[in-house]
Amino acid sequence: MVKNVKTVLLVVVTLAVFAQPALARSFGEIYKECGLGGMIFTDNGDAAAVSNIVWDSGTTAISSNITTPDSCKGGQARMAAFINESYEAIEEDLASGEGTYLDTLMVLAGVDEVNKDQLAAAIRVNFAGIVADAGYTDQSRVEKSEALYGLVYKLIEV
């Protein structure tokens, strides 16, 4: 166990050292602006850093800084925060196929009026698969929010 933790920390530090010159973002900024913490806590860098550390020792913050720097502070952060804050209401709108929260999600995803119904339908179909998973009810709100965010993000990138 200790060896695994040391290995993860070594990888994290190595990635941070090599990524920093290329992207000109400090280690503290990475933890506050990137990863799941940066997406959920867009207006509270300290909470974002704590979330990133608790969630996965900051590995997603560092990897998102390297692989998708646009996802850090801005980008889809508002959409992620909205999903986290309004998860239950979005879930209800997805179940019914319409609603204010689903409409807001489409706006935050940057979908134009012409394509919003098509994207909403695709999210609804794919989300049904997430909800049908046996472990869904045991997931935390953050895990559920992350799954929905990942689904929406994947569909808007297609």
Question: Care to give the gist of this entry?
Answer:
By secondary structure, the protein is mainly alpha-helical.
Architecture overview:
The chain is mainly alpha-helical and 158 residues long. It contains 10 helices and no strands. The relative contact order is 0.10. It folds into 2 domains: 2-71, no CATH class; 77-157, no CATH class. The longest helix has 22 residues, at 2-23.
* Range of strand content: under 5%
Alpha plus pi helix count: 10
Largest sheet composition: none
Sheet/helix structural class: mainly alpha
Mean of residue pLDDT?
Answer: 78
H and E string: HHHHHHHHHH
Taking the alpha carbons of the first and last residues, their distance comes to 39 Å
